[in-house]
Automatic annotation (TrEMBL):
Subcellular location field: Nucleus
Source domain of life: Eukaryota
Family: Belongs to the THOC7 family.
Native organism: Pseudoatta argentina
Origin organism lineage: Eukaryota, Metazoa, Ecdysozoa, Arthropoda, Hexapoda
Gene: Thoc7
Coiled coil regions, renumbered to chain: 73-107, 134-161
UniProt keyword Secreted, yes or no: no
One GO term describing the cellular component: THO complex part of transcription export complex
One BP term from GO: mRNA export from nucleus
Name this protein carries in UniProt: THOC7 protein
Pfam families the record matches: THOC7
Amino acid sequence: KILEEVIRRRLLIDGDGTGDDRRINMLLKSFIKWINSSDVDNTLHERMLSQLAQCEFAQKKSRLVSNMSREELKSYENLSKEIEVQIEKAKEDIEKTKAELQDAKRVRKNRIEYDVLAKVINEQPDRLETHIKLETLQQELGALKKKSEQLEHKLEMRRKQFHVLISSIHSLQGMLDEGDEEIMDVSLENDTDMQISCDNS
């Protein structure tokens, strides 16, 4: 009797409530009505069983959503850490590329100096020794030009890779923001659906 009185007072003060509280309060009301009824009412009994099943289902569903949210958050955190590692590696690659660019500039400067020297040699009388030196210089110029082209190509690839990495970071941030909003929407939608189900019962 004391327990029943406490339950009655709580229902009068709190009302039906919302979400899980509403389902539990409706179940308590049905239970009080059932134990106070002198008649055997199978309909009320079946309704209580249905309400109990709905409460259990809502609890399991909430737990499942919570577990999924934790797993998704953990996945995002791991991905974020991986991107941080990639960013650090990209910074190291940029510093390395800067050094390579300086080398390329030095190669270009040397090539200009060699071009000037080759022009001077070409203006000199045609001698065997001069011709040999000129061929040697041309070979060196070819090698320097090839190295310069390779360094410039590598620098361009580094720039493109860093641009792709920055774009991926922005995309991940957008996914994280959208994921948080979707989790909140799913949780609110689940509560609304269960509330409508209880009202219809």
